[in-house]
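Side project, low priority. Logging it here so it doesn't get lost.
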Amino acid sequence: MALRYEEMTRTMLAEYGVRVRKWRTSMSGVAWQVTYHDGTVARLIEAPRPRGPMSAAVFLHEIGHHAIGFRTYSPRCLEEYHAWAFALEQMHRWDLNVTESVRRRMHASLSYAVHKALRRGLLNLPPELIPFRDPPAPRAPAPNTPAPKTLVP
């Protein structure tokens, strides 16, 4: 499986002409591009090195920003939606495991983006984003996990 993650990483970086500025140790990322005076464009990301489903999803999400193009979609939360859609599509393409944790992370990220846009005055929420108005459902407890003890005064 490690070889599949390495191959996917190399291929996606080359396919979209993206350079990694920094491999992050956290499960967060950022994508940006720099246009130089001579017109050349540097496509950059910071993301975790893909070693499992979550780090792969974050990495592919950042690649997705370059794949779909910056400012292609408005409002900004719609760009986030399409970057996540790209990430999940690529995970299926590469036969990578899309776990429930990845789906929850995507929902939480999009819910945050939607609420940020609404706070800033967004009047018309695109239909694709309506399911993300609500926060993600809480994580179900693991099987055979004892119920938390309540303190009785």
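Brief comment: The chain has a mean pLDDT of 94.
Revisit when time allows.
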